[in-house]
Amino acid sequence: MSKLAEFEPVFFPKTHAVIGASNSPTKFGGRFIKTQISFGYKGKFFPVNKDEPEIFGMKAYPSVRDIPEPVDLATILVPAPAVPAVVEECLQKGVKAAQIITAGFSERDEEGIRLEKDISEMAKRGIRIIGPNCFGIYCPKGGLTIPPGESLSRESGSVGCISQSGGYGIRIPRRADGLGIRFSKLVSYGNASDVNECDLLEYFYEDPDTKIICGYMEGVRNGHRFFELLKKVAKEKPVIIWKGGLTEGGARAVKSHTASLSGQAQVWDAFFKQTGAVAVNGLDELMDMLIAFLHLPPITDRKFCVVGGGGGIGVAAADACERVGVNLPVFSRELQQKLLGIVPAQGASVRNPVDVGSPFPAPPMLKATLDAVFSGVDIDGLIISEIEMSAVSRPGQADFMRMEALAQNQRTPVEARDKFGKPLIMVLPEESNGPEYTESEGARRQVADNFLKQNMPVFLTLERAATALSRFIRYWEKRSESQ
Amino acid sequence: MSKLAEFEPVFFPKTHAVIGASNSPTKFGGRFIKTQISFGYKGKFFPVNKDEPEIFGMKAYPSVRDIPEPVDLATILVPAPAVPAVVEECLQKGVKAAQIITAGFSERDEEGIRLEKDISEMAKRGIRIIGPNCFGIYCPKGGLTIPPGESLSRESGSVGCISQSGGYGIRIPRRADGLGIRFSKLVSYGNASDVNECDLLEYFYEDPDTKIICGYMEGVRNGHRFFELLKKVAKEKPVIIWKGGLTEGGARAVKSHTASLSGQAQVWDAFFKQTGAVAVNGLDELMDMLIAFLHLPPITDRKFCVVGGGGGIGVAAADACERVGVNLPVFSRELQQKLLGIVPAQGASVRNPVDVGSPFPAPPMLKATLDAVFSGVDIDGLIISEIEMSAVSRPGQADFMRMEALAQNQRTPVEARDKFGKPLIMVLPEESNGPEYTESEGARRQVADNFLKQNMPVFLTLERAATALSRFIRYWEKRSESQ
């Protein structure tokens, strides 16, 4: 069976039993149903509860076996010791898939290990199981969301995500949400008693809705299978992995968390090199890679130009780029000469990086600079760093910040990119992190959002842009070598 | 003469001549005066302009020599070729110090090099000169601010800052502003024709208002003097340096920017190791180090505990800490046993990192956890990571986010720190970076601000907290070795 068919009831269940449902909206079993309904599940719900005849106005059943229709997906919320019996009933009913949200299994103690083993064995008899100790499935197209994910986007997108951690299972899509990153499916799969990282990777490989794969992982059940699979998948779709537990303390934490063996850092280093998967550390780096893969065409060369609004900015840009192997070739005398006729006579620089002399360049100057660079040198892309694009509420500086000029400077990078067909990257830093700058930050985010909507990647700092760009190019280099 | 006396007219001028003043508030020479008045300069202004008899209602003088009173500080805004003649007039008048904001000197061309050499020679005849090609002085106590710094804080603080770059001369205090970081003095000194990094370092060393020194530097005029000085200063006051131009492209950009020789990366590495100065890259790292030095007592050992709101969070925390040499020792059986009685029975972890099972722990549980850890193990500090402390506007989750519980959880870390007298560090990440999360971000910033006001360091991510902490401890290790 293809993975697509196999996982159809997982991501697009027509019927959904919730075992351990409750009438109380403050209890987990009540909140879960409320959340799914509010999220927009369009299939049929079957609450299961031994004692209640009705849950939120829906008929409830004492057991999953009493449900009068076929059941695609069961969500299991009962305490750990009761789970094996419930899974047995699901098997008897012919339920196709189950997600076990409950914790307290192999990550907990000997008894938990035994319970989880029972579940793994049962899965072989014909039900696919996600979990236990997880948040399960977020699939906007299927109308499913993870327990804390009521406010996640209802829009479907091209990113497939796996997270062994529930915490990152919610933090990843929430962080992504504001950056316009949309998911095809996200699965928090916890202890991986049945469905594991390999199954999900195979699914995303086949899934036409998924173009980019990312994930937070703690351990791998079958290293060899995962390695071979990743090599194959990364040739077709970018795979970005944040691997947790690569230090001693991290490995110890992994054991208490998902009972996985986390493996050694050197092994994983080699692993990433050989498979072409992109390694990241932390949420910020993960987001940056998604932004790059979503909004940039393939780039396999490293010649870039930086246009910045100040001399120090140019220095920092050059340092940040060259440190990670993104090169800023010196411009020809001819191009330098041309640029000297565009930028201010004093306090500017034209060799690459280009310093337009001020973070608020006049719109015609910014436009002429981009035109001159794109038409005067064969570069692989251009980074605009720290040119202010949004209104900032500083007292007394209204004359600096004409809205019209800002609006034009916001259009210029998109127009230049489209005119010359070359990648362009924006660095839009926060003004300051204090409460009194929240309004300015809101304006900055609005501008960043507009760029992202026009497929223009935006990064918060130069360092993050350069790091993401370098990893992005390495991915495409590796992919072009192996084909 | 002590540096304090020598720089008195620079930072606390009783009289201030502005040469190249203008009546037009849109011209630089007009804006500069407007900015200083609005910032709150309390001394006497003497605008100098050949053609105008009056500037903004103040009597103007054709030359600095025509001013009827002694002049402490002159700000020079006239075009580069006119600067040497103006400095000559300042010398004749007996002006004590001058800041030359004008650009177009040694960073520009041969003619600029010649002009700047003239200025350097003149300085030896008895005037201290800052610049050219700079933003000059920000000193809230003296009522002076740099040209784009009208909105900077009027409050004085304990951080002394030097910046060779004007762009970072404004970006550093602006970024710091929202984090409650206040400056004693900041000097953007550009091409350093006279006053250079050594003079300023000596000044800050003597200055009783300055407790921490930081800076962005591109080149050093006298490497040996700077090295010896830094060794001496770093033993008394932390010195944090962002050195620009350590790559080939960066060095090239430095040359166009402040005409400095930037030096090799290996040389600087050794330099930092031997002097005990703290090296950083970029604004974020610079801010993080200031936060650490402002709000933490000296720490010379590396045994820490992490308390986090989720299993994955704990894994990431352990990885982030151990990668930079901050250790998380496994707790004793006894302490683990005690914690098992406090955290939830399922989905938690007690070995260090401690996972309290949820990003929203009940207030008594968070309090009991901190009490148990602080009284049960001899650690050098504790990091609280990703426990939600501020209200987040997510639809339908009001029951999760009781304001009262949040307020109590905000008090608990401060109370625990004060009760046990041990350092405590908060990691408060942004929820998401999109425009629709601006309100939540405002709430988060408010909470972060409250922590900072209570001397509790706050970092945006685990990785940044761990990196800053590791550098902070290294500074104190080095300082305790050398004493």
Q: Span between N and C termini of chain A?
A: 28 Å
* Relative helix content of chain A: 40-55%
Structural class of chain A: alpha/beta
CA radius of gyration of chain A: 26 Å
Largest interface: A-B, 102 and 102 residues
> So what's the overall shape of chain A?
elongated
Q: How much of the polypeptide of chain A forms β-strand, as a percent range? A: 15-25%
Tell me about the largest β-sheet of chain A: 6 strands, mixed
Reconstruct the topology from this structure:
The structure is a homodimer of 483-residue chains.
Chain A: H1 3-6, H2 8-11, E1 15-19, H3 28-39, E2 44-48, E3 54-55, E4 58-59, E5 73-76, H4 83-93, E6 97-100, H5 110-123, E7 128-130, E8 136-138, E9 159-163, H6 166-177, E10 183-188, H7 197-206, E11 212-217, H8 223-234, E12 239-243, H9 248-258, H10 265-275, E13 278-280, H11 282-295, E14 304-308, H12 311-323, H13 333-340, E15 349-350, E16 354-355, H14 363-376, E17 381-385, H15 403-420, E18 424-427, H16 438-453, E19 458-459, H17 462-481
Helix pairs in contact in A: 4-5, 7-8, 11-17, 12-17, 13-14, 14-15
